[in-house]
Design goal:
The chain has 2 helices and 10 strands; from the N terminus they run H-H-E-E-E-E-E-E-E-E-E-E. By secondary structure, it is mainly beta.
């Protein structure tokens, strides 16, 4: 029995180390505004104990362009930013990306990155 489980042990350990959850807090649609910038918010929770929280660099990716997110004051693991939507467009696709360092045994911290699924923001004319 042990011979069957032992080869799977590294895979099971690694799978448990990189679990992260993105929770989008932005509505699916927003009314069109004059500046064509629309707020987005996300929470990022990770069970990866080696993740260095002080190294997190969050972005929202729109058309491949990374736009920085900033932490929400007084709320842990919550980030906010804006997404540009041209006046001629009625929707835009975006995703969240978090770059960070994680501690590694016997070496300097290593870089890593996690991305959310793709979301769509619809802009509604009033």
């Amino acid at each position: 029995m042990l011979k069957r489980i032992l080869p799977l042990l590294p895979v099971l350990l690694l799978a448990g180390c990189t679990t992260a959850t993105f929770t989008r807090l932005t509505p699916n649609s927003q009314p069109r505004n004059a500046n064509n910038l629309y707020p987005v918010e996300v929470t990022f929770d990770s069970t990866q104990q080696s993740l260095r929280e002080d190294s997190i660099q969050p972005y929202v990716l729109v058309n491949g362009q990374p736009l920085p997110l900033r932490p929400v004051p007084l709320v842990k693991n919550r980030w906010e930013g804006v997404v540009p939507v041209p006046a001629t467009a009625s929707a835009v696709n975006y995703r969240f990306k978090f770059d960070f360092l994680y501690n590694n045994f016997g070496t300097a911290p290593k870089p890593s990155s996690l991305s959310s699924k793709i979301y769509t923001l619809k802009v509604v004319d009033q």
